[in-house]
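Lab notebook, bench 4. Still working through the backlog of constructs that have no structural model yet. Next entry is a single chain of 427 residues. Request: give me the structure tokens for it.
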Amino acid sequence: MKKLLFIGLLAFCFSCAENTPEVKVTNPEHYDKYLSTEQGNTYKNAMAERDFWSNKLSADTTGVGSLGALAGAYTTLFDATGNVENLYAAETLYKKGMANSAHNKDGFARGLARNYISQHRFQEAKTILEESYAGVSNKKATELMLFDVYMELGMYDKASEMLEKSKNLSDYNYLLRLAKWNDYKGDLDAAIRFLEKARDVADGRKSEPLQLWTYTNLGDFYGHAGRIQDSYWQYIKSLNMQPDNAYAKKGLAWIAYSGEKDTETASRILDSISVQHQVPDYYLLRAEMAEFNGETAKSKAFTQKFMDAVAKGNYGAMYNTYLIEVYAESNPKKALEIAQEEVKNRATPETYHLLALAQLKNGMEEEALKTIDTHVIGKTEEPMALYHAAMVYKANGLSEKVSPLKADLLEAEFEVGPVLYEKIESL
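Model written out:
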């Protein structure tokens, strides 16, 4: 089954799957040494960078050359801690750079656009990049970022145009986008090939940031292809290079849980992440694992912790897709409201299938069917989208359309996880 680069963690059910033995992939001898609960070097180095450039900027507040570096340090702090205030601090610095820079406005524009992408403010990122592209700018770098934004907004023709303009099969950044494009088109094998080529470029340049980015993404892609052992080793390689890499640890936790049905090990790995990298979505994975173990009250408590963390965290639209799925069960009207806003902000198959879910939960079966048929089927093979499509078809009595979707979804057991897999079996 061809799949997109996304692991759906919002799957809840009323009965848990049997905890059956699985083939063991993980080995604590490979990763235990990385499960420290202390802040790692990424955080410490970013703090040092922040202090250095902040002091330099304080000495000369017109020093535009320090703004980008300081913004970069705050961005790294966000990556290391999950504290969104660091992202907002970087935004302020990029804006100041755009206002004050005489020669590098487009560089600050790309930095601000990247920041907005992290905040899920895709329309604003698009506006900034298009204005920069029309002026004096690094055209190639801006084309690559425009590709990213157009993909997020579902503007696939424009994304293809930008990809063609920046074509260079020896360029790391182009290869990453080509992998993403092939993943979107449903050709996972090609996506992996191009990502492996990007890895080779990164290894040849001995660029640690590029290597880390590629290894962790390959970990995801291999997992989607059912190559769990290969996925595992990519995450281990990442941790060998950056022991506090939260993304790689989360990948290991998913392998332990979904691949091995070992929630104890998965929880232990998550414990090591959560002290350093405090983001709300870890609560959802813990909620799912509790549901798998039959601990309904514990699952609900973790889900509530997620809701509380989002409410207190000033995250803007960053967790809207998660909220839609949670509210679909507890507050369908709220789910529909958020889903309609998400589609307005970015009309993609991924937002439309959530709209269909919200419509379905509000008793709007026919509207949900129209949404699925018009905006989802044939436009994505992301498992959660297909699952929601199957739910809508079932609610509309179209069992002949449920069966092929169910067959495809049953091939994605590792990606969807054991809780959702049981729900798929009961379609």
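Notes after review: The radius of gyration is 22 Å. The longest helix spans residues 41-59. Flag for follow-up if needed.
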